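Hi there. Long-time user, first ticket. I'm pasting a complex I've been working with (about 819 residues overall). I'd like to know whether the download I got is complete or cut off, because the file seemed smaller than I expected. Thanks.
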Amino acid sequence: MALQVYTASLLKEGLVAYLALDNGRPSWTTDIHLATVSNDDALETLKTAAEQSEQDNIVVAPYAIDVFQTENGIVAATKREQIRAAGPTIALPQDNIRESREAA
Amino acid sequence: MDNYIKDRKVDSNEWMPFTGLEDGDSLPTGDIYVPLEEWLNARETLLTRNGRLGVALRNTDDPAIIKDDLERLDLVVLEFPKMADGRAFTQARLLRERYGFKGEIRATGDVLYDQLFYMQRCGMNGFELRDDQNASNSLKAFDEMTVTYQPASDEELPLWRRNK
Amino acid sequence: MYQYSEQDHQLLLERVSQFRGQVARRLKGELSEEEFKHQRLRNGLYLQLHAYMLRVAIPYGLLSSEQMRTLAHIARKYDKGYGHFSTRQNIQYNWPKLEDVPDILDDLAKVEMHAIQTSGNCIRNTTSDPLAGVARDEIEDPRPYCELIRQWSTFHPEFNFLPRKFKIAVSGATQDRAAVAVHDIGLRLVKSKTSEEIGFEVYVGGGLGRTPMLGKVIRAFLPKQDMLTYLEAILRVYNMLGRRDNIYKARIKILVHETGEEKFRELVEAEWEKIKAGGLYLKEEDFNWVKGFFNDPEYDILPDQDADFENLMLSNADFARWVDKNIELHKQSGYRIVYLSLKTAHQPPGDVTADQMDAIADLADKYSLGHIRTTHRQNLVLSDVQLKDLPALWGELKALDLATPNYNHVTDIISCPGLDYCALATARSIPISQAITARFDDYDFINDLGDVSINISGCINACGHHHVANIGILGVNKKGTEVYQLTLGGSAREDAAIGKIIGPAFEADEIVDAVSEVLSVYLENREDPEETFLTAYRRLGPALFKERLYG
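Hi, the file is complete. Here it is re-exported in full:
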């Protein structure tokens, strides 16, 4: 059975966020490992909570993504979602400049 | 509440849309507007009435079709089927600037706060706001911007020449 | 450079305040996301893969040092300390918060900058030749015309909800450094064949994306007085007749294509006849006024040689390489144009840190009359550097990692942000550009290859202009894997051409080898080192390349 989590962008910050349910109380976290994972049956609960958050102007455009549970935590199934979860796969410019200066 | 703005004031809408032209005897009294096809088909009958007349254009219609009728019309209704569809901006300018229409040019459909400034500049002066909009709150949208660069229905000259 | 009047300032302040209101209404829920999207896009604000992205306009690629410092300040205060110069001569910030954007716009407005119409289905920021006003091959300076277009198109009430986005480029030189053939409208300043009169050759319907097309010459000569009335006529025809039923067929290139060039011309000319004497007809006084902002600076009278410069050329091979690659002749004796390469092994193409921006602003003040230009190949230009200052400038640029000698060479790669940043992307672009740079990061090889362009796009929307590269790379997602198609033979210059796909796509770990093979075929088959890649490709055709790549 496919495992899924709900993701969206935070309205105010624009950052990638994942839905976590704590005793039914929804919150949004930028850490995919803290997301509530659901199988097909329980997905409807997540969906309802996500859509409510959208209506409450907390997040924008929520949708479900496929994930795997691994020993290192939750991993998104597609490359796109892995990049959303972890950030750009390249070093950001100032990191690089710092490194090249340190090397020199 | 009509949710209607005319000449920058919240107003009540006196106009009735009318399409039931099959029966010429039952033409309503008062101010009515009809779709372009009805106008083209039944112009003479419609003109026998006493009330004011308007024509509604689809946003694919060329306003040139009614340019010779404009003296007999008090209203042209333009449509914004969705906010992003901006064809009626051109229609409004042509009606005002090219064909010299003096009556009301009315925006209908997805008429939202943030478009009012542009609509007004193109010569529209009647606004049937979408149901969820608040007409009195929307009045300030007309004055959010006071500087305009280019000529339109409200300005004949570009800013750089107005200053001279 | 254009100086804002009180009214220009007023307009920016009003726009910021309007946008602040729109943000507040969105946060309160009075505007739906769909409605807000139209508004935020018209102010350059996207919601991208990781965060909001703000695209700030750099009108026709011209910046003052003060403006550059403000860009640095914004990168530091509201973002992660860097910005990205795009192929449309603008700058993008990748991490701003929605709540901060009105404040960013306030800071920009203080230095006569904004994000107006940098996105959305409206007339975008006009782009131009980064060498405008200093190029030797210039017929006339395009910037005054760009400024008139900027004013005409800013909040144009009729054309703010077009079928699709609309891009205008203006070139004033013999060589095309503004890629006019791949814009919705391209204007080339030309001299009339029958008189000394200056006017425009008007291209309409060029563009890249999923249906790449070169613009058609709709008018061979348009008197300059008619520039704005003619643009208005084109836009009006497009606004009424452009397709709105299918987003992929909504650009003006499709209208021109489906209507037919001849019929489209008739429509435009018929509309133009009716408005050509209107308020947008340009008079001599208008040109005099706007040209007054772009007068030549007071250049020193200098010899076109300098002993220290010559000596360093002879004694320092690195300096000589940089001069050979990144310096261009200037119309004024004793001056040179300097390209600052934003293509190093250490940073994504077009990315600049806040510290670099501040330093570039200082260098512009010190060596180049306080101005900086951005190029559509994602580099920067200091346009007015005295020959005698080149050694010192080179030293400072080297320390900033901005002196890679590769302008218009193989590692001067255009790359879109790709799947590392972009919500539309289907594959990553930056890692491919970095892998290519790492592979070919050898001056002698780069020098031997000569003039060649590699452009990379991370999806079919082609923001990386892969169609008009000599070697274009398009990343796509094939069953969950990023694969890369090669197109060969494109050009964005005066000999503009759309490249052709050479064959099946390569995987990420094969694409650099494939590029290497393509370059080898060129090196083995060129007539002499003077024959460029593109010339050789046009002579040889695709067969040899195909055979080497696919056997």
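A couple of notes from our side: The mean pLDDT of chain C is 97. Chain C is about 40% helix and 15% strand.
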